[in-house]
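During the reporting period the student researcher (J.K.) took over the structure-prediction task from the postdoctoral fellow and processed the backlog of single-chain submissions. One of the processed entries is reproduced below for the supervisory committee.
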Amino acid sequence: MTHIPIVVAIVNTNPDLVRILRMSLEKAGFVVFEFHIEDIKLGAADVDSLLRQHDPKVIVYDLAPPYDMNWRFLDHLRTSTGFKGRQFVLTSVNVRHAEEVVRADESVYEILGEEKDIAEVVRAVKEASRARPTR
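J.K. obtained the following structure tokens:
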């Protein structure tokens, strides 16, 4: 039986955190690629094409300040065709402020680059990768 690896996309503006996350997720057996949020916002990347090409099951999305504006953008992304049915794991460098704008049923994982918080995100991605499609 051939194991098909699960693809994870990272959407984060901090290259150091992206590198740490990528290495940890790849070590856990995931195939990882990244989107730069500004490329999505500015239309510089053909996101729909990248989503079709890589077909990530899970998207690790970093909620950065300004939280309310970026939360609305994430909400918009989730309703766009290419993002529907994919699982999201939300991260932030400031969970307290991020949780002020997110829905009550959303978990946000603080990610500061420490082993403990990276391991928690990897665990959340593993759980999300086993979840059934939504929406």
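The committee noted the following: The chain is about 45% helix and 20% strand.
J.K. will present the remaining backlog at the next meeting.
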